[in-house]
Amino acid sequence: MAHYQYPNPLDLLFFAEEQATRRAGLPGVHVHIHLELRGQVDVAGLRRALLALYRVYPTAGARRELEIRTGRPRWRLDSPAPDMRRVVQLHAVTPPTAAQLQHDVEALFAAPLDIDGLPPVQFHVFRGLPRGDVVVMRWPHALTDGRGAYSLLEELARLYDEAPDPAALTSAGDERRDDFGRMLADYPIWRRLQAVLELCRPAHPGCGPVLQLAPRPGVTSPGPMHFVLRHLTPEQTVQVGDRMRRVAGTSPSGDYLRGCALHALHELMPKPQPSHGLYTVMLLLDNRRRQGPAMCWNLTSALPLIVPAEAAGDPVEATRVIHRQTIAHVRARTGLQYYAALSLLMYPPTAYVAAVLRATMLSGRRHTSGLMLAGTPSLRLDFIGPFSRPLPRFCGAELHNHYGYSTLLPEPGFALHVNLTHDRLNIIGVCFESRVPVPTLTALMDRFVATLLDA
Fold first, then answer.
1. Alpha-carbon separation of residue 26 from 63, 106, 307, 366 (angstroms)
2. Looking at residue 333, what DSSP letter applies?
3. What is the torsion angle, in degrees rounded to the nearest 10, for the CA atoms of residue 41, residue 47, residue 52 and residue 55?
4. Would the pTM count as exceeding 0.90?
5. Which among 57, 167, 318, 444 would be 20 to 30 A from 432, CA to CA?
6. 363: how many CB neighbours lie within 10 A of its CB?
7. What is the pLDDT of residues 21-64, one digit of tens each?
């Protein structure tokens, strides 16, 4: 008898986005984590550790299947052993330059991810640079978010170091969890219907327009994606942390990062802009339990934050506006409302939801619903902290730096990803060249860094 993990409604939303973007000619919804190493990774050892990981977390070695009756995707856990040469691929960077590496990784980034014939967690080792290998971990967003992927990397490093007998390993039980269902156990159907209605209401009735960096899109494909990297030094990272604590009272602070990023965006926006305009950004709340966190699940709620244009002119004031709304969301448990709405909205067949998302994506309409499930923020900014413990080495090589980023939707056409290691802040910008040109993204990132250091 086959064994399956059935995705929760949030996973199903990412599966629907995957189908929608593929049908729109885009590569899908997937994520990359870069591990910059000093020296060469033990490729054979990495493959052995992955096989051990499949024993502890079977979904990491699963395949996507469609349920015959409903057409919904699910993970088949008892899939045959894969060809590990395809799961962990080795690439020669020729010539061995940073520019060639970026070219090769961008080509990989633009390629769809095979999760029907291969496990969803895949690795690419880029070899040839003088300092050492760059390992790219690649996975579909429908499997997990960045926090879950970082936890899988930690487990993979542990299994490599300890080298246990795979036959002695058993599942940690991750595939049997139902955190999503437990969170909504006391949420009756009438409250779920209320949540759907709330989702359809305007987020800011009677207020000004939502400001966007990119013009309204057409129906054509937005073309290739590019990314830009900014790595702060450890000294600069300490400086940013000091400023975070002074402004936001804590470090790291997603509120401070979003406030500074919106300020940089406001300075870069074409002039004139409506004085009564608004900027929107998403608050991402991780709902994993601290004890025994769920690995191969999406458990993050995305909630709207709204900043008036006049507040965005001052990064400190923007941070305070965002912080007040963050506290309000936490106290009101808005994340549960978001999940309650999803539990109904994802009830139809995934292919139907994907068709609706694709039509919306290509129509050029900009939605400003209350919970922004289908909304278009002014700025997408993802923030993820360091590993739960220092990870000095990964599969036989010294770990120098790490950072992650994900594919885009046509709106808003760009995104910023902020990664904090134990001693370094990394900022990655991703854009569609036809929507937000690389020089524009580069200017935005330079203003963002300057604001972080000088706010």
1. 21, 14, 31, 19
2. T
3. 140
4. yes
5. 318
6. 11
7. 998 889 999 999 999 999 999 999 999 999 999 999 999 999 99
